[in-house]
C-alpha cells in the first residue's frame, strides 16, 4: 500500500516541532535553522531520530525556510543535507517503513499585488527546492504553515510540476478560521481539492484545543484526508521568550479528541517535542481511523469566498464581456483595466455571486489581458470568477493566476474541446460549464442534449474530474426563430436535474434575441428556468427586471426566510421621493465645487437642454474645476474635497460625452504615469491621474513597480511628451533616477515631472527631473505649461 | 477596537486647524467603520540586550546599526524591545478597491489607516512601558528604520529577528517597503533613568518642508 492509500485505512503520524527545539539547543533569534543542516548535522539527525523512535511514520526535513531568497549560494547543499540527515536517522532508528517529507514553508514574501513577489517567481522558488529534495530521495512533499492561499497555490503547482511524489499541505488559520490574507477553511479546501493535493490540513498558529472548531469545519467540507499538526498550546511570552504551555499528557488527551473528529493524520508543530508525539501516538493509536468521505459538493471559490452551486440559484454577472459593447471593446484596446474593474464592482453591488470574465477581442493579446483582468479583479473584490474564453492559452493563464477554484466557460461535447479543456481542469481545478452540443451541432430535442451531457460527464471522469465539477449548459436559443426552443431548454434543465442529478446553467438573455423589449421575455423565462431546476444563470445583475425575478423566485420557493431579502430589497422603495426642487436646482458649478456627484449629473442633464455640450464644458465645468484647484492651492480646499469635486466633474463629463455621441471629444495630449520599480505605493500617482483626466489629458497609467524599460518603451511607442513618476521611498528614488536617465537617452523630447513623499525640489533636480510637483494640481499646471 | 485619533486623520489629509466640511466628516466616519471591520491587527515584540554602544554603532543580537539619531535615542539603555505591528492585507485591499472607483474615499482610507496603525502601536507601546515599569525600567520613544539616519534597510533585520512573515504576516519588499503597507517596525529603548522625552517622528526628520510636519 502506498502512502496515500494508507490514509484513512490506518493512522499516519507526523513529527512535531523543529524550530522551537533547535532554539532550546542554542539557535539564536533570527538565525536560519536550515544552516544547522551544515553546521550541526548531529543535532538534526538526533532530532529526526528522536521523532522516529517516538513512533512517527513521517519525519520532516529541516528545510522549512530553505529557498533561494534566503540561501543564494548553498540551497542545494542545504536541502540535500537535510534529506540525507533524515535518511541517516531512519537507518539509525531502524525504521525503513518511515517516510521522509520534504518540508516546504512560506517564502517570507507577500505576493503581488499586495507585496512584490511575482506569482511565477514564487512557483520557481518552490520548484527549486522540490527538484533538489525529490532528487535527494524525499518520499513526499509537505507544504506547511501557509498563511496565504495564493502562495499555497504556487507551492502546490511547483510540487506537482516538478516531481511525482505525493503532495500534502497544511495551512495556518486564526481563531476566527481565517488565513492572514483572508482565506477561509472552505475557500482554501475548494482550491486545494481542485489542485488535487493528496491530503490537506491545519498546522501551527494554535494549540489542539483552539484548533478543534477549525478541524471540524475542514472535515465537514473536505473530500480529502485531513492532517492536524497543532502547537503545544498558544504561544506566550515570558521574559521575552516564547513558551508553549501544553505538556505531553494534556497534548495527547486533546489529540485523542481530535482523532475522533474524522481526521486521518496527526502530528505536532511549534513547542511539541518527541515526548508530546510519543504520548499522542499512544493515546490515539487505538482510536478507529475514519475513512475519507467524498462530499460531492459543487463549489467555486475566490481567495476568501465560496459559492456552492446546487442550493439557491446562483447569479453569474455577464457584464465583463465585449460582445455588443463598444465602450468595453475600446477599454480592452486601450488597456483600460480600471473600466473593466468598475464593471465588476458594480455587479457585486447589484448582487452577483460570481463574475463571468470574457476579454476576447481579435486584435488583442487575450492571454495577457486575461491575466491583467483576473489578477486585477481578485485584488479588489472577493467574488469567485468564471473564466470565459475559447482561447485555451487565455484559459490556462487565467486559471493559473487565479487565487481560488474558478468556474470555466466552457467545454462542449466535441472531442477536441474536451481534449483541450479537461487536462486544464485536471491540473488547476475548477467547475466547468459543459455545453450540450457536439460535432453534430445543437440537438433540437432535450433527449439529444441529455445524451451529450452524459457524454461530457463520462469523458470528464476519465480525466478524474468528478460529475460535481461539471455544470451543464442546457442552451437557451431564441424563440424568435423557433417558437418551441424555450420548451426544449426547460425540458433539458428538468431532465438533467431529475435523471442525471446534475447542475445546470444558462445564458438566459439569448432566449429573446431578435425580439423587442427583451427584458420582458428574459425575466419571465428566468423565473420559468429556475422553477425547472436552473442552478446558475448568466445574467445582467444591473437589470432590475431580472433581479426582481430572482428575488421573487426565492421568496416564492421558501428560499428567503420570512422574505427578509425581498423586503430588504424592495421594502422602502416606494418612499423614494422624486428629486426635490432644491436639489435639482443646484447649479452645475456649485455641485462640482461641493463635490456632489448626483447633483452634478442632474445639473449637466438639465443644462444640455439649453447649451451645446462644449459650451457646458468650457463655460461651466472647467471654470468650476479651476476654482476648486485654486482653492486647493490657497489652502482653502483640501485633498478629499478636491477629489470629490474631481469625481463630480468626471460624472458630469460622462453625461456630456454621451450627449456628444459621434463627435470625437478632443484629448489634450498623452501623459504616462507610473510608480517606479521597487515601489508598491501608488496612491499619490492615482490622485494625480484623477486630476489630469479631469483636465482632459489622456493618461497612460502603467501602474506600480514599473521597470524603467517599460516606461521608455511606452513613451517611444506612443510618442509621449510628458512622463510623471512617483516614488515614496529613498530606496526607490534610485529607480526614478535610472528611469530618467534612460528616458533622456532614448526619448530626449519627453519631459519628466516627479513627486512623492521623500522628494524635494533639490532632490528632484539632482536626479535630473524637469519638474518637482508638490501635489496633483502642480502636476496639472506643469502639464498645461509643457503640452498645453 | 483601536481608537483612531480623528485629528490625526485630518492632519494626514492636509486639513489645518480642523476646518473640514460635512461630506468629508461623513466620509471619515464611513471609512473608520469599514476599517474596523477589515483590519486584522497583529503584532510581535521581543526583548534583546543592547551591547554597550561604541560611538554611533549599536549592537543587538548580532545586528549592527550605525545611527547617530538612534544612538542618541538609546543613550543609557541596556536593553531594547523590537516590535512590529500590522493591520493586515485587508486594509490594503480596501484602499486598492476604493482607488479603482473613488479616489476621495481611497485617500481617506489611507489617512485613517495611517492613524490606526499609529494608535495600535501606541497601545502596544504603552503595554510594554507598563511591563517595563514593573521592573523599574523606563521606555524611550519608539524609533523606526527610516527615521533620521536610521537606515531603512534595517527593516529586513527586524523582520528576520522577529520572524514577522510567519508570525504576523509582515514582509519586507526589495525596496524596503513593508507589506502589508499599514505596518510599523520600531525599537524601544529601556533604561533605568526616566527621561522626559516625547520626541516622536517628525522632529528628527530632515524633510523640514514636509506638508505633514507637526
Report on the structure:
The complex is a heterodimer of chains A (788) and B (214). Helices cover 47% and strands 14% of the residues of chain A. Chain A has 788 residues and is of the alpha/beta class. In chain A, α17 links the parallel β17 and β18. In chain A, α13 packs across α14, α24 runs parallel beside α26 and α27 packs across α31. The longest helix of chain A has 21 residues. The radius of gyration of chain A is 30 Å and the shape is globular. Chain A starts with a helix and ends with a helix. The relative contact order of chain A is 0.05. Chain B is globular, with a radius of gyration of 18 Å. Chain B has a single domain, classed as NADH Oxidase, CATH 3.40.109. The model of chain B has no long low-confidence stretch (mean pLDDT 89). Chain B has a four-stranded antiparallel beta sheet with strand order 1-4-8-5. In chain B, 51% of the residues are buried. At the A-B interface, α13, α26, α27 and α29 of A face α2, β1, α4, α5 and α6 of B.
Instruction: Supply the CATH architecture of the largest domain in chain A.
Output: Alpha-Beta Barrel
CATH superfamily of the largest domain in chain A: Dihydropteroate synthase-like
Largest sheet of chain B: 4 strands, antiparallel
Helix fraction of chain A, binned, reads 40-55%
Low-pLDDT segments of chain B: none
- How does the helix and strand content of chain B classify structurally? alpha+beta
Amino acid at each position: 500500500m502506498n502512502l496515500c492509500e494508507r490514509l484513512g485505512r490506518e493512522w499516519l503520524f507526523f513529527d512535531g516541532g523543529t524550530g522551537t527545539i533547535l532554539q532550546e539547543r542554542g539557535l539564536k533569534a533570527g538565525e536560519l535553522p536550515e544552516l544547522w543542516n551544515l553546521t550541526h548535522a548531529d543535532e538534526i539527525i538526533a532530532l529526526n531520530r528522536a521523532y522516529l523512535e517516538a513512533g512517527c511514520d513521517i519525519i520532516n526535513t529541516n528545510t522549512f525556510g530553505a529557498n533561494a531568497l534566503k540561501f543564494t549560494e548553498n540551497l542545494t547543499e542545504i536541502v540535500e543535507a537535510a534529506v540525507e540527515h533524515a535518511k541517516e536517522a531512519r537507518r539509525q532508528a531502524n525504521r525503513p517503513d518511515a517516510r521522509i517529507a520534504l518540508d516546504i514553508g512560506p517564502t517570507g514574501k507577500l505576493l503581488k499585488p499586495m507585496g512584490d513577489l511575482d506569482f511565477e517567481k514564487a512557483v520557481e522558488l518552490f520548484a527549486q527546492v522540490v527538484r533538489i529534495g525529490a532528487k535527494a530521495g524525499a518520499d513526499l512533499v509537505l507544504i506547511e504553515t501557509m498563511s496565504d492561499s495564493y502562495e499555497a497555490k504556487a507551492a502546490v503547482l511547483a510540487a506537482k510540476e516538478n516531481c511525482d511524489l505525493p503532495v500534502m499541505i497544511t495551512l495556518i488559520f486564526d481563531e476566527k478560521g481565517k488565513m492572514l490574507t483572508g482565506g477561509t477553511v472552505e475557500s482554501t479546501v475548494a482550491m486545494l481539492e481542485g489542485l488535487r493535493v493528496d491530503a490537506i490540513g491545519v498546522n501551527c498558529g494554535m494549540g489542539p484545543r483552539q484548533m478543534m472548531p477549525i478541524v471540524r469545519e475542514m472535515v465537514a467540507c473536505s473530500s480529502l484526508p485531513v492532517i492536524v499538526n497543532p502547537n503545544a498550546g498558544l504561544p506566550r511570552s515570558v521574559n521575552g521568550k516564547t513558551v508553549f504551555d501544553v505538556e505531553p499528557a494534556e497534548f495527547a488527551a486533546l489529540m485523542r479528541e481530535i482523532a475522533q473528529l474524522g481526521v486521518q493524520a496527526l502530528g505536532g508543530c511549534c513547542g511539541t517535542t518527541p515526548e508530546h508525539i510519543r504520548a499522542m501516538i499512544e493515546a490515539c493509536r487505538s482510536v478507529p481511523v475514519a475513512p475519507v468521505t467524498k462530499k460531492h459538493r459543487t463549489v467555486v471559490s475566490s481567495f476568501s469566498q465560496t459559492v456552492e452551486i446546487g442550493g439557491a440559484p446562483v447569479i453569474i454577472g455577464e457584464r465583463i464581456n465585449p460582445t455588443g459593447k463598444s465602450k468595453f471593446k475600446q477599454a480592452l484596446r486601450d488597456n483600460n483595466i480600471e473600466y473593466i474593474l468598475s464593471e465588476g464592482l458594480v455587479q457585486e453591488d447589484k448582487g452577483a455571486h460570481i463574475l463571468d470574465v470574457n476579454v476576447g477581442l481579435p486584435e488583442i493579446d487575450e492571454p495577457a489581458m486575461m491575466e491583467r483582468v483576473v489578477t486585477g479583479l481578485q485584488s479588489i473584490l472577493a467574488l469567485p470568477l468564471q473564466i470565459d474564453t475559447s482561447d485555451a492559452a487565455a484559459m490556462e493563464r487565467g486559471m493559473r493566476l487565479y487565487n481560488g477554484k474558478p468556474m470555466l466557460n466552457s467545454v462542449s461535447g466535441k472531442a477536441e474541446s474536451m481534449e483541450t479543456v479537461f487536462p486544464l481542469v485536471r491540473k488547476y481545478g475548477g467547475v466547468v460549464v459543459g455545453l450540450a452540443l457536439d460535432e453534430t451541432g445543437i440537438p433540437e430535442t432535450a433527449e439529444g442534449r441529455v445524451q451529450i451531457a452524459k457524454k461530457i460527464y463520462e469523458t470528464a471522469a476519465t480525466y478524474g474530474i468528478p460529475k460535481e465539477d461539471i455544470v451543464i449548459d442546457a442552451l437557451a436559443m431564441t424563440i424568435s426563430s423557433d417558437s418551441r426552443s424555450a420548451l426544449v431548454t426547460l425540458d433539458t434543465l428538468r431532465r438533467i436535474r431529475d435523471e442525471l442529478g446534475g447542475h445546470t446553467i444558462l445564458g438566459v438573455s439569448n432566449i429573446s434575441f431578435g425580439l423587442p423589449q427583451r427584458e420582458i421575455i428574459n425575466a419571465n423565462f428566468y423565473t420559468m428556468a429556475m422553477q425547472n431546476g436552473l442552478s446558475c444563470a448568466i445574467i445582467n445583475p444591473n437589470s432590475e427586471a431580472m433581479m426582481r425575478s430572482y428575488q421573487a423566485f426565492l421568496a416564492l420557493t421558501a428560499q428567503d426566510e420570512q422574505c427578509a431579502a425581498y423586503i430588504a430589497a424592495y421594502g422602502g422603495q416606494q418612499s423614494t421621493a422624486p428629486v426635490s426642487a432644491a436639489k435639482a436646482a443646484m447649479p452645475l458649478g456649485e455641485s462640482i465645487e461641493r463635490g456632489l456627484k448626483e447633483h452634478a449629473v442632474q445639473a449637466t442633464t438639465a443644462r444640455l437642454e439649453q447649451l451645446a455640450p462644449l459650451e457646458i464644458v468650457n463655460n461651466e465645468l472647467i471654470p468650476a474645476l479651476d476654482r476648486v484647484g485654486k482653492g486647493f492651492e490657497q489652502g482653502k480646499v483640501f485633498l478629499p474635497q478636491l477629489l470629490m469635486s474631481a469625481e463630480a466633474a468626471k460624472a458630469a463629463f460622462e453625461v456630456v460625452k454621451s450627449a456628444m455621441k459621434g463627435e470625437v471629444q478632443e484629448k489634450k495630449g498623452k501623459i504616462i504615469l507610473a510608480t517606479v520599480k521597487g515601489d508598491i505605493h501608488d496612491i499619490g500617482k492615482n490622485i494625480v491621474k484623477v486630476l489630469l483626466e479631469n483636465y482632459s489629458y489622456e493618461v497612460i497609467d502603467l501602474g506600480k513597480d514599473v521597470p524603467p524599460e517599460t516606461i521608455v518603451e511606452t513613451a517611444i511607442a506612443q510618442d509621449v511628451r510628458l512622463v510623471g513618476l512617483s516614488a515614496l521611498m529613498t530606496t526607490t528614488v534610485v529607480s526614478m533616477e535610472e528611469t530618467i536617465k534612460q528616458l533622456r537617452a532614448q526619448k530626449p523630447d519627453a519631459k519628466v515631472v516627479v513627486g512623492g513623499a521623500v522628494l524635494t525640489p533639490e532632490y528632484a533636480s539632482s536626479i535630473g527631473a524637469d519638474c518637482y510637483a508638490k501635489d496633483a494640481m502642480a502636476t496639472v499646471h506643469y502639464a498645461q505649461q509643457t503640452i498645453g | 477596537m483601536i481608537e483612531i485619533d480623528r485629528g490625526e486623520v485630518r492632519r494626514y489629509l492636509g486639513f489645518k486647524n480642523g476646518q473640514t466640511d460635512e461630506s468629508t466628516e461623513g466620509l471619515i466616519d464611513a471609512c473608520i467603520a469599514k476599517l474596523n471591520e477589515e483590519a486584522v491587527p497583529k503584532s510581535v515584540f521581543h526583548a534583546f540586550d543592547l551591547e554597550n554602544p561604541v560611538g554611533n554603532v549599536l549592537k543587538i543580537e548580532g545586528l549592527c546599526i550605525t545611527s547617530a539619531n538612534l544612538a542618541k535615542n538609546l543613550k543609557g539603555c541596556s536593553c531594547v524591545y523590537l516590535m512590529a505591528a500590522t493591520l493586515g492585507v485587508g486594509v490594503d485591499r480596501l484602499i486598492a478597491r476604493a482607488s479603482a472607483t473613488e479616489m476621495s474615499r481611497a485617500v481617506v482610507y489611507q489617512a485613517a489607516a495611517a492613524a490606526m496603525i499609529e494608535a495600535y502601536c501606541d497601545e502596544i507601546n504603552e503595554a510594554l512601558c507598563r511591563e517595563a515599569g514593573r521592573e523599574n525600567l523606563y521606555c524611550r520613544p519608539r524609533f523606526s528604520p527610516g527615521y533620521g539616519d536610521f537606515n531603512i534597510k534595517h527593516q529586513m533585520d527586524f523582520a528576520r529577528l522577529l520572524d514577522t512573515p510567519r508570525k504576523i504576516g509582515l514582509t519586507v519588499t526589495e525596496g524596503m517597503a513593508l507589506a502589508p503597507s499599514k505596518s510599523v517596525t520600531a525599537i524601544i529603548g529601556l533604561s533605568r533613568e526616566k527621561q522626559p522625552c516625547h520626541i516622536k517622528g517628525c522632529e528628527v526628520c530632515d524633510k523640514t518642508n514636509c506638508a505633514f510636519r507637526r
